[in-house]
Fold each of these.
Amino acid sequence: MTVVNFNLKAQEEETEDKKKFSFNGSIDAYYRVNFGAPNDENAIYPGSSFANLPGFALGMANVVASYEGAKVGFVADLVFGPRGEDAIFNSPLLRPGGSSNIVNQLYAYWNVSETVTLTFGNFNTFLGYEVISPTGNFNYSTSYLFSYGPFSHTGLKADFAISDDFSFMLAVMNPTDATEYNPNGKYAFGAQVGYKGQYLNFITDDGAFEIDFTGGFDLSDDFYLGINGAYFDNDGVGFAGGAIYPQYSTSDKFTIGLRGEYFVESGDFGAIGTGVEDSSVIAATLTGSYVVGDLTIKPELRLDSASDDAFVDTDLMPTKSLSSFILAAIYAF
C-alpha cells in the first residue's frame, strides 16, 4: 500500500511539474507604403526602429519557452527575422559568427521570498513604454523614445515588492547593448521605483545616464491614456522627449489609438537623420487594432514632421516631413 501511495504521489508531482512549463510566442508581417516619397531603393524612413522595410515585409518569429516554479524558473526567448535582428543588433558585432544573435532574452530567476526576486541573465529593458515584441505594443511602428533607449541588458537585478502598490528594483549590468559579454570591464547600474502602475526608471553607464517615466491611467472602462517621458545625456549629447498614448475601445474586438510624440536631440546625437545639431521631430501615429481570435490586424497612419530636412520626396529633394501607411498582421500563440 505504501508503494502505491508513493507512485501516485510521484505521478501527481510529475503532472504538476509539467503544467509549469509553457511555450508561446508570435509571428508578424506587414505592408508599408510612403506617400509623396520613394518606395524603392531610394526610400527613407523614420529614424525609429522596426517596420521600416518597403512593400510586403517580414517582422519576426518570436518563440518563448519558460518554466515557472514556486521558487525558481527560467525564460528562453528567441527571435528570427528582420525585427529580431534589429532587436539584438549588437550581438553579431561583439562576437561575429556567434549563435546568440537569435537570443532576445535568456535568464533564470529565484523567488528568494514572497517579496524579493533575483533575475540573472539577459532580459529586456525596464525603461520605456514600448517593448520589442509587437504583441506588447498598441502601435505597430515604434517611437523615437523607445528606439534610442536600451533594448536589453545582461546582468543581475533584484525586484522588491514592498506592498501591493509599491515596488523597487536595483540592477548591475554589462554596458548598454553588450548582451553577450562585457567587452570593457565597466558596468551599468539601474533602478526603478513603481507605484500603482507608474514607474520612474534610471540607468547610468560610464558617465551617460537616462531617466525615464512610464505610466498610464484608465480614464474610463473604454478609454486609456499611456504616458512616456525620457531624458538621456552623454557629455552634452543626447535627447529628451515625451509621448502620449490615448486609446479608445469601441468593442471587444476593435480599439483605436493615437501616439503623439515630441523628440528633440541635444548636440549631434543623430537619431532623426537631419545632419543638423539639436534637431527635433513631432510624430503622430494613428492605429486601429482589430482582433480575430489569436490574430490582430493593425492598419496604421504615421506622420513624421522634423525641424530640419530629414526625408526626401519623390523627386529625391530634401523635405521635413514623411507620411506613410502600414498594415500589419500579428498572430500570438
Amino acid sequence: MLLALQLLFAHFLGDFLFQPYSWVKDKERRKLASPKLYFHILIHIALSFLFIWDLSLWYIPLIIGISHLVIDASKLLLQNGRNNRLLFFIDQALHLLVIGFSVILFTETIEIIEVPTELWLYLLGAFLVTNPASISIKTIISVYTPKTEIEEDESLNNAGKYIGILERLLVYIFIVTNHWEGVGFLIAAKSIFRFSDLTQSKDRKLTEYILIGTLLSFGIAIGVALLINVLQLNL
C-alpha cells in the first residue's frame, strides 16, 4: 500500500504540479521534437526516486519513466484537436495501470521512507482535489463555450481556479473529518454569491456552464474524500 501511495504521489505531482501549461502547449506543437517532453520524463523519474528513496530500487523509476515516455509520445502523435479530452483520460488511466502493475510486481521491496501510510493517504487525497481536479474539470467542460463571460477586468487573475481549489479542499476536509454539515454550508454560500452574477448575465448557457463546473467540483471532492475514508478503514 505504501509503495502505491508513493508512486501515485510522484505521478500526480509530476503531471499536474511540475508541468507548466507552456510545456503542454510546446509538446502539442512540436511533438517528439519538444525538449519539454524529455524534461517532463526526467522529472517523473526524479520524483519516483525521491519518494521511494532507495537507489537499489532504481528499476522502478526507470520503468515508470520509460512507460511514461511511450504513453505521452503516443498521445502526442494521436492528438488531432477533436480527441484531446478522450486521450487525456486514456493517458492518465494507462499511467495508473503501469503504477498498479509496478506495485504488484515489486510489492515485496523494502520501503525506506518512515512516514505513516495514513498520512500519505490523506495527503494524496488533498492533492488530488487541487490541480489534478482543476485540470480534469477544465478538460471535461472544454467542449462548452458560453457566449457571456465575466470581463477580465472585473475578475481577479485565476480567481476561479483558486476558489475551486479552496472549496474542494474544504469539502475534502469536512468529509474526512466527518463534518458533512460543512459541505451543505459551502454549497449554500456559493449559491448565494453566484446568484447575482448569473442574474445579471441573463445567459442560460453561462448558467449551465457554471452549474456543470460547480457540480463536478463538489462531486470530485466528495468522491475523493469518500474513497480516502474507505481506503483508510481497510489499512
Amino acid sequence: MVHHTISNSSSSAPSASSRIRVMKRASRFLGAALIVGMLASCAVKPPPAPPPALPAEPAPPTGPVADSSPIGPAIQRARSRWVPVRWAELPGFEQDDTSDAWNAWIKSCERPGPTFAPLCSEVRRLSLGTPDEQRNWMKARLQPYRVEPLGAPSEGLLTSYFEPMFDGARSARPGFGAPLYRPPPTLAQRKPWYTRQEMETLPEARAQLAGSEIAFLADPVDALILQIQGSGRVRMAEADGSQRLVRLAFAGTNEQPYRSPGKWLIDQGLLRGDVTWPGIRGTLAANPQALQGFLWSNPRMVFFREEPLSPLDAQFGPKGAQGVALTPGRSIAVDPQSIPYGTPVWLSSQGPVANLQRLVMAQDTGNAIVGAVRADYFAGWGAEAGDFAGRMKQPLKLWVLWPR
C-alpha cells in the first residue's frame, strides 16, 4: 500500500529533501500500522456463547386444582364400562391418608405398563409429599371413571384374602404330618395332573411326589388354607434345630378345577350360614368324620417354591399377578379384563366387617375374581388378617384413576 502510494506521486523527479520527507512519513505510517496489527493479534477474544439450557422438567403440581376440566367420553373394556366423573363423586377422597398407598404405587412402578410408566418419575418424587400434595397431583394428572358392568346394573362384591402364617417342619415328624409340595418332576407330562384324592391314594401318584415335599404342617386344614390362598409364611424348623421364617410362594397347580370345601359342608347339611374359616373349623371339630371328605372335595392342589424373607421383604406380601409385592390394605386383586394391572383405583365398601374408602392399586387376580365391580382386598398376613379376610363379604363400588 505504501509502495502503491509512492508510485502514484508526481511524474517529475523529486528533490533529495522531498524524498527524505516522503520516506519519514512512510516510515511513521508503516510503524503505526504494525502497532495496530500487533494489538489486534494480542487482543483477548470473548468466550464462546454457552449452549442453550435444556428446559427443566416441570415439577408435579402441588397447589389446589380445580375440579372443572373436561372429563371426556366413556371407555369400554372387555368386561366393564368406565364412566367419567368429577373428583367430588369419590366418597372420602379428601380424607384418605394417600401416603399409605404411595408405597404400593411405587411398587407398581417397578413393573409399570405403558400407560402409567410416563408418570412414575413424578410418583417417586411425590413419595415424601403430603396427602394434600398427592391428591392435587392426582387431580391434575388423572381422570376418575366409575366402573360399571356391561349389562344390567348389579351390586359389586368385595372379598378379602391374606397370607397365612404357620409353624412347619422341614421333614415329617410327630405333630407335623401334613405335606406341602414343590412341583413334581412329572407335572408337565400329564394334564391335568392327579387330583388331591389320587395324590393321597394312588401308588403311582405317591411315587411321583416322593422327594417333592417342601414342608410339613401340623394341620391338614392349615395346608388347605395355604393352598387356597396361594402363598404363605412358614416358621420353618430345620433338621439342625434352628428356625427361620420363609415364604412359600405359588409355583403351579395340578390344573384340576377348584371347588369350594365350604360349599361341600353346606351340601352335606353340616354347615349353615357361617361360611368363614372359624365357622368351618368349628363344624369340622364337631364332625371329625367329615374331615377327609372335606379335604378331597377340592381336587385342586397348589405347589410352592421357597423364598427367603429378608426384614425388608417381610414388610410386604407375596408378589401378585402384576409381578410386584403386595401391600397390606392397599393392594387388590381384580379381573384384568375389567381393570388392568398397575391401575390406581378408588375403593368404597361399607358393611359389617369394615368401612373402606381408600386409594388402592390393582396388582393381582384370582380364579374367583371375575366381573366388572369385583375385588379381593389384600389384608396382610397372620391370624388377625386371616380372621378379617374370612369374614369379609360386602357391597363394593370402584373408580379407576386413568391418565388424562
Amino acid sequence: MFSKFLNLDQEKQDRIINAAIKEFAQKGYDNASTNEIVKEAGISKGLLFHYFGNKKQMFLFLFDYCYRLISEQFYQRIDLTEKDFFTRIQQAVLIKMELLTTYPDLFKFIEEAYLEDSTEVKADVEKKIKELNSINIGKVYEGIDFSKFRDDMDIKKVLKIITWTFEKMSEEELFKAKLSPTHEIDYEKIFLEAEEYFEILMKTFYK
C-alpha cells in the first residue's frame, strides 16, 4: 500500500517521516496539519497524499513504523538467553529507558497515539496495540525458567497477575499524562516504582 513512499530514497523518506512525527506528536491527530507537514518536509501536498492516500493512513503508517523501529532495537539489545523471569523483565525496562533517550521523538509520537481520542483513528490504534502487546509478551516470556516459581501456584495465573500489575501501572501513568497539559510521562519515576513491585512479586511468587 505504501510502496511508492518506500521506493523513495532514504533521505526523502526520513524528511517526511520526521516532519509528520513532529506534527502529530505536538498537536495530536485532529489538530495536526498536513500543510505544516509538507512545508516542513519540503514536498507538495499532492505528493504526500500520493504516497499515503490520506491523513489517517499516514498516521497509522507512522505508528507501525515507530513501533517496528523501537521493537527491532529492543530485541537486538535484550538477552533472551537470560532465564530468570524478573531479571529478564528488569532488563527490558532498562532497555526501554535507553531507547527513550535515543529516540525521544518516536516515543513521544507513540505516547500520543496511545492517548489519542480521535474517533477517526482510536479504534485502529487500540486494535494494533492489543495485537502488538500479545506478540511482545509472548516473546519476552520465551525460554524462562519457570522452576524458580512456587510449586503450589498455577504458573499461568501468576504470569497473568504480574502482567496485569504492570499493565495497570502503564494505564495509570498514561491517564495522568492525558490530564497533564504537556502529556509528559516521568519514566524515571515509573522505573523506580517498577523496581519496588519487582521486589514484592519476587518474594511472593519465587521459592
